[in-house]
Design brief:
heterodimer, A: alpha+beta, Phenylalanyl-tRNA Synthetase, Chain B, domain 1, OB fold (Dihydrolipoamide Acetyltransferase, E2P), Phenylalanyl-tRNA Synthetase, Chain B, domain 3, 6 domains, 19 helices, about 30% strand, elongated, B: alpha+beta, BirA Bifunctional Protein, domain 2, 7-stranded mixed sheet, two-stranded antiparallel ribbon, 12 helices, about 20% strand
Chain lengths: ~800, ~350
């Protein structure tokens, strides 16, 4: 809501500059800022020119004596239009003018000047101006310039929190200022008349809590007085005609939405407040047709609705130049119902916005009279009839406030007198009873419902800056848990060292993105406003794959990403970790250019990374018995933890990756379900194993096996030997050779490097040879794997 | 000058200009088995006892002087040789170092969560978590946001097919989860993902992160809240910055506050980052509303509590001068590799 700084002064007396005013409003919880301002100065006051003399040292300058009524200043001035008797703005020493121009004590051509008499451009009022600004003759002197510059206003934008519907008016803001400054906001003066009852209104729904109507005849519809159009304009409301403008003006003045319509356009004189029929329609004042339903409240004649209650009037009963008799309505409708209607129709208006937030009971009648008075005055109307339908009995909220509770919640004491004073200036009625005050809440403060709300009011008006700051009082004790599971921390750090980047994707996907990956189970969002938010991701793969394509498109030759987050699949909401790898493993380097070493991520290298980052030996890589549909069935494996498959990795199947142009190597993907790993702790304090001080003996052997034989079977034999005799300590596979012309059809050769060690003595060749022979014999007898000579 | 002195002078002169080969020859020439000085010592028998003594002494002295000179020269030649070698082997440090992998990076949002968490851990908080798929009760009802309340408008909600379930719109639902599971005293933060059903633009995202904080005990007050949050801001952003609490409204806290910190870029003088206000909105907080405590069957007469919520992306954007929230979720390596 936008309001005028000058107009606000009509409702409460204050002497703050626009900027100071917004700062004060912020301090009581109303976000506000100056939208357009011309008076962002301080220390600029009005003064009277007492005397003008020529400057002895410069023809074009003059020496002036000016007075603010109590003090005289001598000023050097360069303007031609200065003359004795004028009232002019003086920027005193210390004033800051637009453009951060600070007025300092200075000598001009040898004579000291105690400030500067300003032009409109210097004040930022106009872009260009000639000579100094000369104010009206009867302007008060010695006051801040902004207080006398009526023609220059500031517009203040107000943003209220959802609980403070009462602040959506000049009066509401004035009350807040009043509470803070200990002043009372003033209401406009109204005249009431004794007139006949309406006898034509029927309330048929309890969604209407109060309804006041008036018939005003003899209305001359025409333009509004200038002050109304100007005030509306400053709040961003377009002027329509005097009657409509007055209803709008009273709404921003007092916060009560009003509605006026041409009663002669109704099919009958009867006005009915009822729920709409399920197939009823109305063309509203915005020219659009709205379909109503039986939960919406309407104002109707005997045939059809004339207004959507609290939201918008209907077109056919609108006020135009020919209108002579109007029906003026001021009502309170059920806030929830208005909110629902507005949401369903997707139609939010100044009126519905206020009704949704709740209105003060007392202001309804007052606003009707205020509008009627203005219509009588500015549209020549005559009030014929009026009636007030109080559908519900309204009772003001009464709350007992315990003084002791105030300090219990706030943590510091506020004097009882101060508490009472603050509450009184909030227009709360007080009845003290010892350690308790009984508070009666004014009708417009529907946000104050219980004791804690009063405590908030007290500290809010007193100011949050009054709360003592005791940073050293913070109680410390320690804890060790973390947002990221320990396993994830381990993955992140290790992958970071290997050049991976951490990604973060939206939790949503489009349905058609799932198909490509053959993901069948998903949670559907029932009300997405955008296609991107159709389903929750059942896997981290689709978005990581999207990231991969994006980065390949940016000409990255290596893309290695990982992500931790939740996925939503047939097992529910699951914490998941995944990594995707593609492209060159090594960065290019001039020293390696000759060797042309440029390996790519593939099943074995990716698998090696997975093996390396897994936090303990308890994780085993095994055959993937139940591979996800997106893996290449020949290039996948599963990660087993304590006998359970917790994750899978592998190369994505070609039907997925065929959208990568000139694909270089494989796309490797790894995903692990962390919900299955809740018990894993990353062991940093496992027991130290003594190592041998005696030298290690290394031997290389090559064996020939059938290609169909799983490598893991050979490994198993080696591992068994390691377990049994104790001198074979390590092995590594350093070469795989499969040239069938040399090895024979269906054969493959593996070369191992074996490390032998004895913890007690230096090994002899004999001992090592004996051990190798045992190994070779076992390989031969169990697997028909033979030594390659 | 006697003969021996002459020998010393002559030898020293020769050593001075010798290279390593000449040096070896000189050693033989003077000190070798048939060297000049050895010869002298061998011929001593022909002299008188007195001369024997004198010449012998002088010759031995000369021997050690020359030996020493040769060693010294040898050392210095060796050193010069090594110096030359090192000089020749000098590499250009400015050319190119190599590590096979490019530099890895952590996501700035996760990093901020970690950083904020560690500040709160140092203030005695533990870390808890809650599900992202929530029910109306945890996300709204228990937090004193009834169905019809306009506060729901500010949090457009994603509903799942089964309308009873929704995606949490704030981590505040975690408060309820924690209080249901635990008895006071409670001192936790709940970091996590939250969702709003709104169109995304430079400052809005349907997915983002929050960190919720909750402290419940018998004598928790607004003063404690201010102390902890001022402490957090000072530890996280810098001790010199001003902190401002101003009234605000959240359904689940009363009194409520927004906490601003002085803009670190302009020190409160106003700049582009703080939109000339001198202040940066950092977090929302307040004393937990008695209705919320009642919702989890805590006695609001006995316990008081405070809560706060921090928008992680906002703080991260501010910290790194990022002006578009969508950059966080694009995962362009040109962005990610900067962190």
């Amino acid at each position: 809501m936008k309001i005028s700084y000058n107009w606000l002064k009509k409702f409460v007396d204050f002497e703050l500059s626009p900027k100071e005013l917004t700062e004060m409003l912020v301090s009581v919880g109303i976000e506000s800022f100056v939208v357009s301002s011309v008076c962002d100065w301080s220390n600029v006051i009005t003064v009277k020119v007492l005397d003008v003399q020529k400057h002895p040292g410069a023809d074009k300058l003059s020496l002036c004596k000016v007075s603010d009524g109590s003090k005289e200043y001598s000023i050097v001035c360069g303007a031609k239009n200065i003359a004795t008797g004028q009232i002019v703005p003086l920027a005193k020493i210390g004033a800051v003018l637009p453009g951060n121009f600070e007025i300092k004590k200075s000598k001009i051509r040898g004579i000291e000047s105690e400030g500067m008499i300003c032009s409109e451009s210097e004040l930022g009022l106009k872009e260009k101006s000639e000579g100094i600004l000369v104010l009206k003759e009867n302007t008060k002197i010695g006051v801040a310039l902004e207080n006398v510059l009526d023609e220059f206003d500031s517009i203040i934008e107000i943003e209220i929190t959802t609980n403070r519907g009462d602040c959506l008016s000049y009066l509401g803001i004035a009350r807040e200022i009043g509470a803070k400054l200990r002043k009372v906001a003033s209401l406009p003066i109204i005249k009431t008349f004794n007139v006949a009852d309406l006898n034509c209104v029927e309330i048929k729904s309890d969604l209407c809590l109060r309804y006041i109507g008036a018939i005003i005849s003899g209305v001359k519809v025409g333009p509004s007085p200038k002050w109304i159009t100007a005030t509306l304009e400053k709040s961003g409301i377009r002027s329509i005609n005097n009657v409509v403008d007055i209803t709008n003006y009273v709404m921003i003045e007092l916060g009560q939405p009003l509605h006026a319509f041409d009663i002669t356009k109704l099919s009958s004189k009867n006005i009915i407040v009822r729920k709409a029929g399920d197939f009823e329609k109305i063309t509203a004042l915005d020219g659009k047709e709205y379909k109503l339903d039986s939960e919406m409240l309407v104002i109707a004649d005997t045939k059809k609705p004339v207004a959507i209650a609290g939201v918008m009037g209907g077109q056919y009963s609108g006020i135009d130049e020919k209108t002579g008799t109007i029906f003026l309505e001021s009502a309170i409708f059920d806030a929830v119902s208005i909110r629902k209607t507005s949401k369903k129709l997707n139609l939010s208006t100044d009126s519905s916005y206020r009704f949704e937030r709740g209105l003060g009971w007392d202001i309804t009648d007052f606003a009707l009279w205020r509008a009627a008075n203005l219509i009588i005055e500015f549209a020549d109307g005559k009030i014929e009839a009026r009636e007030d339908f109080n559908i519900v009995e309204y009772e003001k909220t009464k709350i007992a406030l315990r003084f002791e509770r105030v300090s219990k919640v706030l943590g510091y004491a506020i004097e009882k007198e101060e508490i009472s004073e603050i509450l009184r200036y909030l227009e709360i009625d007080l009845q003290p009873k010892g350690e308790i005050i009984l508070c009666t809440i004014p009708s417009w403060r529907n946000d104050i419902k219980e004791e804690i709300d009063l405590i908030e009011e007290i500290v809010r008006i007193k100011g949050y800056d009054s709360i003592p700051s005791l940073e050293n009082n913070v109680q410390i004790y320690t804890s060790n848990n973390s947002f990221l599971p320990a396993v994830v921390e381990e993955f992140r750090v290790k992958l970071n060292g290997l050049g991976f980047s951490e990604a973060l994707n939206y939790s949503f996907l489009e349905i058609n993105e799932l198909k490509k990956f053959d993901l069948k189970y998903f949670y559907k969002i029932s009300n997405p406003i955008s296609k991107e938010n159709e389903v929750l991701r059942p896997s981290l793969l689709p978005s990581l794959y999207k990231n991969l394509l994006l980065n390949i498109g940016q000409n990255f030759e290596t893309v290695t990403l990982f992500e931790y987050g939740k996925v939503f699949n047939e097992f529910g909401e699951r914490k998941t970790f995944a990594a995707i790898m593609y492209g060159k493993i090594w960065q290019e380097w001039w020293k390696w250019a000759e060797q042309k070493i440029s390996p790519k991520y593939d099943f074995y290298f990716g698998g090696g990374i997975v093996k390396n980052i897994l936090p303990s030996d308890e994780f085993i890589i095994a055959e993937n018995l139940n591979p996800k549909n997106y893996y290449h069935l020949g290039k996948t494996a599963s990660v087993i933890y304590r006998g359970k498959s917790v994750g899978q990795f592998g190369v994505l199947k070609p039907s997925i990756t065929d959208d990568i142009k000139d694909i270089k190597g494989d796309v490797f993907y790894f995903e692990i379900d962390l919900e299955l790993l809740k018990t894993v702790c990353v062991e940093r304090n496992s027991l130290y194993k003594a190592y041998s001080k005696f030298p290690v003996v290394k031997r290389d052997i090559s064996v020939i096996a059938d290609k169909s034989l799983q490598f893991s079977k050979i490994e198993k034999v080696i591992k068994n030997i390691m377990k049994s005799n104790g001198i074979l300590k390590e092995y590594s596979l350093f070469s795989v050779y499969s040239d069938e012309s040399k090895l024979g059809a269906g054969k493959i050769s593996y070369s191992f490097r074996l490390s032998y060690k004895n913890n007690e003595k230096t090994l002899t060749d004999e001992e090592v040879n004996k051990d190798i022979n045992v190994l070779l014999q076992k390989l031969d007898s169990e697997l028909s794997v033979k030594l390659r000579l | 000058m006697n003969n021996i002195e002459c020998i010393i002078n002559e030898a020293t002169e020769k050593i001075k200009n010798a290279d390593i080969v000449v040096l070896e020859n000189l050693k033989v020439e003077y000190l070798g088995r048939n060297g000049i000085l050895t010869q002298i010592l061998k011929s001593l028998s022909q002299y008188s006892i007195e001369d024997k003594k004198r010449i012998g002494l002088e010759a031995n002295k000369a021997k050690s002087i020359i030996e020493n000179e040769i060693d010294k020269k040898k050392e210095s030649l060796k050193k010069a040789l090594l110096d030359e070698k090192v000089q020749k082997e000098k590499l250009d440090y400015s050319s190119s170092f190599y590590f096979p992998f490019s530099k890895g990076s952590f996501h700035p949002v996760i990093q901020t969560i970690q950083d904020i968490s560690s500040v709160f851990k140092s203030l005695g908080f533990s870390v808890a978590e809650g599900p992202e798929i929530e029910t109306d009760w945890y996300n709204f009802e228990a937090l004193n946001i009834p169905e019809s309340h306009p506060a729901r408008d500010t949090q457009d909600t994603f509903y799942l097919d089964n309308v009873k379930n929704l995606l949490r719109t704030h981590t505040s639902s975690g408060q309820i989860r924690v209080m249901e599971k635990q008895k006071p005293p409670i001192k936790v933060i709940v970091p996590g993902r939250v969702y709003r059903n709104e169109a995304s633009d430079a400052s809005h995202s349907s997915t983002f992160h929050q960190i919720e904080g909750l402290v419940v005990d018998e004598n928790v007050t607004f003063v404690d809240l201010k102390a902890v949050l001022s402490n957090f801001i000072h530890k996280f952003f810098g001790f010199e910055l001003g902190v401002r609490f101003r009234p605000s409204h959240f359904q689940f806290t009363e009194p409520s506050a927004e906490v601003d910190m002085q803009c670190p870029f302009c020190k409160g003088n106003g700049c582009r980052v703080c939109k000339n206000s001198g202040w940066i909105e950092t977090l929302g907080c307040g004393m937990v509303h008695p209705n919320v405590l009642k919702a989890v069957s805590y006695d609001p007469g006995k316990y008081t509590a405070y809560a706060f919520g921090i928008g992680v992306e906002r703080i991260t954007m501010f910290k790194h001068g990022i002006d578009d929230i969508r950059l966080f979720y694009e995962n362009d390596l040109r962005f990610l590799k900067q962190f």
